[in-house]
Amino acid sequence: MASLNIKSFATLVSDQVTAMQASAAGLVDLAIGSILRAIVESNSGVAMWIQQLIVNLLVTTRAATCSGADLDSWMADFSFTRLSAVQATGQVTFSRFTATNQALIPVGSEVTTTDGTQIYTVTTDITNAAYDPTQLGYVIAAGVSSLAVPVQANTAGAAGNAQAGTITIISGSIQYVDTVTNSTTFVNGEDAETDDAFRARFVLWIASLSKATKSAIGYALSSMQSGVTYTLTENYAYNGTAQPGYFYAVVDDGSGSPTTTFLNQAYAAIDAVRGFTVTFGVFAPTLVTANVVMTITTDPSATHSDIVTIVTNALQTYIASLSLGQLLPYTQLATIAYGASSLVTNVSAVTLNSGTSDLSASGKQVIRAGTISVS
Q1: Are both 312 and 273 inside the same structural domain?
Q2: Of 50, 147, 181, 197, which residue is 20 to 30 A from 296 by alpha carbon distance?
């Protein structure tokens, strides 16, 4: 937007006083409290209001400067909509102290985090050997003490990305089942698309309108849901051999282990915009595990175990944010530990996969946390 000649209240008053005095044959009384001064200041107040209306109008009529609902309205003129938030999903393990009787975990059962802020619902997975379609639930057979089942956050958004071991409460009761926990961190929940990402995808959409282009394929994949990352490799097969006229996509939904359903959706999205006779393949990323060990020293005023938990969560969150092919710098680990809390006074004995080198990933790989040991 071009620079606007915006004037302050004092400047508007001063300009009017100067003009009136210059046009008068004699001295004009414009002292504070005078009638003319009151008129000048009231005019300036009205001018400030009109000036702000003009600025607001200019801001809301351009995609580059408007935000929120105004940006949604602007994009709606092109039938282009913001990507909605994504519900976090993962596995929780139901356990019991006595495994004498058979137990049933019904689909729709709810579990919550320890602090009660997030609720998750057991979902259907027909590929799970314990799922019984007749009873609409998962059967824990007699003699079996635990069973892992899929759950989905009731509320969409990144807030549903629970840290490992934080989903510990069964809402209500499940007969012959005593405890629940999540052994892994949930990382695939995503907030609604941000304004900046919305604008960037709009530019990509404009570039994709010709179809059968790399931009068109990128737009199709990025529009599946929030948090999708991908790499596209042309004229090579997945195994690295040259194959003109073929390309492959490695696609991740943020979890590092996308489901077959997600990969099928990615294939369909690409197929809708690919060039005629051009062949392609869609693959899940290969996981590269990052095992981190470090020792921290904390301020005497702090509870050391609490700071250890904070640093561990910060490391898990950072590693979970890495996208396809993104490097995990060794030196960044100490930086994250220091940044997690001002009560961390020293970080030592840091190792990444038992070494002190950066952990790299190719376009086929994504780095995710393995064992995080902070002491």
Answers
A1: no
A2: 181
